[in-house]
Write a structure and sequence with these properties.
single chain, mainly beta, Neuraminidase, 4-stranded antiparallel β-sheet
């Protein structure tokens, strides 16, 4: 576990760089090397070589972590800077692809495509632009990496408060291998702020979420998506 926010005082929350390791055998945490950049809202991805790639996030008022990335080496407990992203990302989706590359998608600030996608190559330490995932909603959608390496994005909100917000049911698939987007089946219930979980059989379970336009009503229902 690395980074995040510390105890807030008078609505000011310090952003942390420290990291800790959890031992499931003993149920204990021990400190390890701190990141070079304090960050929160970043992604962390375990690479095939055992290192951990941390990318993006925010650093508070003193620095901008959004485009930076670093690697954690568990053998030494040390962090080392690696290639920077082309676009800042905060609270993005990240996952290890079957190719061994790391995909980081969505979480871009205003002025960039909201689901800008980038690929990290561990062999070179470089990032490459991979287009944009183009969800059907403007915000508050949910995205998840499927077993086949594609990204499923569903639901979300469009419009402006208070009277013109609409909950969406549509789904899109982003293929990082080609950088293309295709529309896929819509959910039976419009949802925003919902969860998506990939099951062992490859299906995706969608649960909960806001379901009614401008009414703040939430669903206890669930449904399955079959890729």
């Amino acid at each position: 576990m690395a980074g995040g926010e510390g105890t807030c005082v008078n609505f000011s929350c310090p952003v942390l760089a420290r990291a800790e390791l959890y031992n499931p055998g003993t149920g204990t945490w021990t400190p390890t090397g701190s990141m070079n950049v304090a960050r929160t809202g970043h992604t962390a991805t375990l690479l095939r070589n055992g290192q951990v790639l941390v990318a993006g996030g925010e650093s508070g008022s003193t620095a901008n972590a959004g485009s930076t990335a670093e690697l954690y080496n568990p053998a030494t407990g040390a962090w080392a800077a690696t290639g920077s992203l082309g676009v800042p990302h905060f609270v993005a989706l990240a996952g290890l692809l079957p190719t061994g590359q790391v995909l980081v998608v969505c979480g871009a600030p205003s002025g960039y495509p909201k689901c800008s996608a980038e690929l990290y190559n561990p062999a070179t330490g470089a990032w490459a632009d991979d287009g944009a995932a183009s969800p059907s909603a403007e915000r508050d959608f949910t995205a998840i990496l499927l077993n086949n390496g594609q990204v499923l994005i569903s639901g979300g909100l469009t419009g402006t408060y208070p009277a013109k917000v609409h909950v969406q049911a549509g789904g899109t698939l982003f293929d990082p291998a080609t950088g293309t987007v295709t529309f896929t089946g819509s959910m039976s219930i419009p949802r925003a702020f919902h969860t998506l979980t990939v099951l062992q059989n490859g299906q995706v379970l969608a649960t909960g979420g806001e379901t009614q336009n401008n009414k703040g009503e939430f669903s206890v229902g669930a449904e399955l998506y079959t890729p």
